[in-house]
Amino acid sequence: MSGRTLTGVAARLEARIPHTESFTSELRGPRTAARVGVWLGVALSVAFVTGLYSHASQLATPPVALPTAPARLYQVTQGLHVAAGTAAVPLLLVKLWSVFPRLFVRPPRPGRELALHLLERISIALLVGAAIFQLVTGLANSAQWYPWSFGFVGAHYALAWVAAGSLVVHIAVKLPIIRRALSEPVDDVAAASPGSTGPVAPTRRTLLRATWLSAAVAVVATTAAELPGLRRVAVLAVRSGEGPQGIPVNRSAVGAGVADQLDDPAWRLRVIGPASTLELSLDDLRAMDQRTAVLPIACVEGWSASGQWSGVPVRDLAALVGAGSGEAVVVRSMQSRGAWRESRLPANFVQHPDSLLALTLAGQPLDPDHGYPCRLIAPARPGVLQTKWVHELEVVPA
Amino acid sequence: MRAARLGLGLLGLAATAYGLLLVVGLGPGQLGSVLVWVVGGVLVHDALLAPLVVALGVLAVLSASPSWRTPLVWALVVLGPLTLVAVPVLGRFGARADNPTLLDRPYWAGYAVVATVVLVLTVAAARRRRRSALG
After folding, report:
1. Which of A81, A98, A278, A336 could join A50 in a cystine, given CB atoms 3.0 to 4.6 angstroms apart?
2. What is the domain range of residue A174?
3. How many domains does chain A have?
4. pLDDT tens, A126-174?
5. Which of A162, A170, A212, A232 to mutate to test the interface with B (most CBs of B within 10 A)?
């Protein structure tokens, strides 16, 4: 306490605000906060690292060449990203509950201590604000709900750095308290041993176990649709995994505004390269050597589904117009608007034989919602970059 | 230890500063909306959610018999966060008429099943505790 004396209205107001001592639950405090905090730190770290990878994957030119194998790489990392973020919801809520009385600590007298106090308050406010922002926007985005006017990708990326940075500052500040709390027993012996007089009051261990269960239930209920045999218990999954040709759809032909252009007999694929420009009809593409690959559509929202795709390898098409092995290919859709109407396939992905301009899925021509007449499908890439309703490929310098 | 903490702190400050630069770089058109959601999230937690949980705790201590307290902790900790996580799918706010593959599960039914299982287990645990306390 500050020991400062307030008078008048300020004193009456101050008396109405709870004090740290007003909260009497023994379950709060460092011993709970440190243990939940460790796992919250793990969950947020996993989300941060997988998020950085996802962000790099979506850049037109990634800072380093990203791996093209295994094909399920992005499916796994993005599934982990969403699962870690979901697990962080109960962990963050219990963590905040365990330290909630600290919100009512009165500031010390002006001077060096007050400056330090304010700095710590600001860093905590940044951490809590950014963490809540990340979990709320991430969860809403995974259900394609955008009740805000900022761009999700830019804001989620920027606040990820604020959350990660202020988390590291927080750990640095609290390290002695964390170490001491973790070295102490979870519960005092008296609380942990059941007495003969009646039921035991809730213990810290109970709270911690309930928290771990809560995180597990949230993850299973929302993301277990990805795991074989658990699809039915994922009662809150944003997708059941059903869809035309067995694959869910992120953006439909109607939604993309291309539905009335798909049956145009005059459709040609334009392939632009350093040596020449070609126009190929659907029959021309079908007459080329076809390759089949089992590849996942793995969306940033965390869902994924594998399909058997057949079509022409992108590198064969690029070679027709004189591309060398070190060049990238820009893939353009018939869509006239939308952030994902074109994508850039980096050179190392172009060279992967399973990077296809797919004409069929599960042996049938593509459903309009899967990108008829042809779409890009490449291993280890986010779904939003698997451009649909393709009408142009352009070979560009890497 | 001191050097490690100092190093960690500086690393964290650098990452935070970079993040804040990115936030400012979003431009005046988006900055206001981002701030509303960052500050709003903190306010909703600190001024609504946390007091609500405190009130539930007080209510439980005042009115629930001791055999109920531990089962109620389990029920609240499991069902509370799950309910928040479920809001986007229960509301189906992102549903689109042109895309039936999105938000295509019976979410209220699924949520009701999970909630029922949790509540049945809570009641069963409370009764067992009372019996063992009496016996």
Report:
1. A81
2. 8-233
3. 2
4. 999 999 999 999 999 999 999 999 999 999 999 999 999 999 999 999 9
5. A162
